[in-house]
Amino acid sequence: MKELSLYLHIPFCVRKCPYCDFLSAPADGETIGRYADALIEEVKQASCAYTDHDVVTVFLGGGTPSLLHGKKMQVIMDAIRANYRLRADAEISMEANPGTVTKESLAAYREAGINRLSIGLQSADEALLRTLGRIHTKEDFVTAWAWADEAGFRNRNIDLMEGIPGQSLDAFEQTLRFALSCNPTHISAYSLIVEEGTPFFAKYHDGRGLPDEETERAMYALTGQLLSANGYRRYEISNYAQDGFECLHNIGYWNGREYVGFGIGSSSYVNHTRWKNTSDLKTYMSCALREEVQHLTMQDEMAEFMFLGLRMMCGVSKEVFAARFSQKMDDVYGDVIKKHAAEGLLLDGDHVRLTEEGISVSNYVMADFLF
Do 9 and 262 form a contact (C-beta atoms < 8 A)? Predict the structure, then answer.
């Protein structure tokens, strides 16, 4: 059977964070319920196209999926189990905001079949949480973390953010050490990107108020050093895990596994074709309209295989590349690989992978693999 990942987008939040450019917005309970019903219907209707696939991962992202009532989450998971070949050991992840969960809702999510929780802490500094516009406090996180443990979640990720306006290296280190004290199985540490169109862009696009480049580099280096010393292996540019707890859903993206997205704005990639759902909520709830359908050429797929695979610390296998595309990697990208290897940014062997220096300029390196 072919392997397939499912992504379900829950585009609602209590309040839009000023740095966020994701497709999300506040909504009332009735709208959230109607949207969830439309999502369930899309899940059911699409299933006939994937009878020859095994679903190996499911990811509920947002927005804030933890705004969904536990009973509605149960209906969603029942629809997936009834209409798809969901493997018994499938990784089923859900993002959660600590300001939106209760002891009862977490127990209901676990009973519905969610077995991996990703909780957005971002920072353990109260002032920085206010700067980010987060609706939760550090204490809210501590309470939610304990409730998740009580509900039986053993596979839990903590999301952290570096490069926050006003964040010092010392404050970031305190957040890292606090996260480690919680003993998560996985830690994601992302640099804040000031995206155009957000309130943060208007305020910080010129860089004033943000940590300087030297401090950001020090934060990144400290993350690797401190997490490695405490048993977390960096397996992707921004992701660290205890042994056996890497995020299988994201690894599927980086390795080119087929995936189907449900909900507004979600993307899919199946049978050399990529498409995206409408981003309009009213249109979606009347009919899940596809848009931006793109049939990928082999050159498109080779380029994606390279620049996504290079996010992984293990890099891209030349053997797997040849088996997948019936061409040798060196015949297609030999000049690019030699160029960046000479610059000290790539290591060239059975796998092509970024060096430590290459990671810091990864966008520059990856861009050269685009045709």
Answer: yes
pLDDT score, position 288: 65
The 3-class secondary structure across the chain, one letter per residue, is CEEEEEEEEECECCCCCCCCCCCCECCCHHHHHHHHHHHHHHHHHHHHHHCCEEEEEEEEEECCHHHCCHHHHHHHHHHHHHHCEEEEEEEEEEEECCCCCCHHHHHHHHHHCCCEEEEEEECCCHHHHHHHCCCCCHHHHHHHHHHHHHHCCCCEEEEEEECCCCCCHHHHHHHHHHHHHCCCCEEEEEECCCCCCCHHHHHHCCCCCCCCHHHHHHHHHHHHHHHHHCCCEEEECCEEECCCCCCHHHHHHHHCCEEEEECCCCEEEECCEEEEECCCHHHHHHCCCEEEEEECCHHHHHHHHHHHHCCECCCEEHHHHHHHHCCCHHHHHHHHHHHHHHCCCEEECCEEEECHHHHHCHHHHHHCCCC
pLDDT in tens, 26-77: 999 999 999 999 999 999 999 999 999 999 999 999 999 999 999 999 999 9
pLDDT at 291 over 80: no
Q: Closest Cα partner for 118 from 245, 31, 13, 221? A: 245
- pTM here? 0.93
Q: Please answer whether residues 311 and 253 qualify as being in contact, where contact means their C-beta atoms are separated by less than 8 angstroms.
A: no
Please state the φ and ψ torsions of residue 275, each to the nearest 5 degrees: -145, 165
Residue 202 CB neighbour total at 10 angstroms? 11
161-198 pLDDT, tens digit per residue, is 999 999 999 999 999 999 999 999 999 999 999 999 99
Residue 290 has pLDDT above 80, yes or no: no
Domains in the chain with CATH codes: 2-253 (3.20.20.70), 316-371 (no CATH)
Asked if 1 contacts 52 with a C-beta cutoff of 8 angstroms, the reply is yes
Structure confidence at residue 285 (pLDDT): 87
